[in-house]
Design goal:
The chain has about 300 residues and is of the alpha/beta class. Helix content is about 35%, strand content about 20%. The radius of gyration is 20 Å and the shape is globular.
């Protein structure tokens, strides 16, 4: 099957393109949002082919995956195809909705020509999709392997654009954890806040595994893939009990709460008790492999793709 999708969410796409299909990703000269092409910091298989707007006219995709309104506009402009009419379409929803509860209406609501696929049950609960058919396929992670060493008595947090996103990502909470342990911030634009950025994924995983505990202070997100990656690495988790996190992190794998004082105490306890931290990390890895593994993820997506194309 030939699957057309834009490179919007690199971590999610890295798992998705491990399947048995051919994946076409648009590319524009500046590799901007309209066409980032193949990933530069993730490892993608040769089955991912980048094509410019001119070449897309002859791409003949079997299905298109939309992730933004912009994708639908670009599809018609560059290929002449209308999503859901000329080519089967799935609207992949990564994000939790913003705004007042009664106004959280999805852009693809009340359509009979697309399927909205949510990456979490939280998204499915909060987005209003009207009569549009919806489905949930939980994240799938390429297993980075057990890398936990925890020799550094520090916490790690991964937040992209931490300065700009501020309260959404809980960036303002980081200094409240300073009394429990030093927190090393990783992610896009982290350097502006004294953190570490632009690490290739392989190096990032190694650096995370050196820290004693993973801290997930994000207030409002669908479900941070860095949280799931840290669990795969074998790290104990301390996370805000918001959005999908309570479903993703079992009790034996870490501490999940809306109380910052409880989370601070948990970070301090893991820092002080390396054996306890290691045990929780092993439980986190077992849970992540079972519930967020690649095999289950790709099988569910194959089912949906075949259903939509049929």
């Amino acid at each position: 099957m030939r699957v057309l999708l834009w490179h919007v969410h690199g971590s999610w796409t890295t798992g998705f393109v491990q399947g048995a299909h051919e994946y076409i990703v648009p590319v524009v000269p500046d590799r901007g949002p309209d066409g980032r092409g193949r990933a530069q910091t993730w490892q993608w298989p040769a089955s991912v082919v980048e094509l410019g707007p001119g070449a897309l006219q002859d791409a003949a995709p079997d299905v298109v995956i939309l992730q933004r309104r912009r994708d639908e506009e670009l599809l018609e402009r560059w290929t002449g195809l209308r999503a859901g009419r000329d080519v089967p379409a799935i609207w992949l929803e990564h994000n939790a909705p913003q705004g007042r509860i009664s106004e959280m209406r999805h852009p693809a609501a009340d359509r009979d020509d697309v399927v909205v696929c949510h990456v979490t049950h939280f998204n499915d609960l909060f987005w209003e999709c009207g009569t549009t058919r919806t489905q949930v396929i939980k994240h799938g992670i390429v297993d980075p392997g057990y890398r936990y060493r925890g020799e550094l008595p520090r916490a790690a947090a991964v937040i992209n654009e931490a300065g700009r996103r501020a309260r959404v990502t809980g960036t303002d909470l980081l200094e409240r954890f300073a009394g429990s342990a030093p927190v090393d911030l990783f992610g896009m634009d982290a350097a502006r806040l004294g953190g570490i950025e632009n690490l290739p994924q392989e190096r990032l995983h190694d650096e995370l595994g050196r820290r004693r505990v993973y801290l997930h202070p994000i207030r409002w997100t669908s479900l941070g893939l860095s949280l799931l990656e840290s669990m795969h690495l074998g790290m104990p988790v301390v996370a805000l009990a918001t959005t999908e996190a309570p479903e993703a992190v079992p009790e034996e794998a870490g501490v999940v709460s809306t109380r910052v004082d409880v989370l601070r105490d948990a970070v301090a306890a893991y820092i002080a008790e390396p054996d306890r931290a290691r045990e929780a990390g092993l439980a986190a890895r077992r849970h992540a492999l079972e519930h967020y593994g690649l095999k289950r993820f790709l099988a569910r997506w194959n089912e949906l793709l075949e259903d939509v194309v049929a």
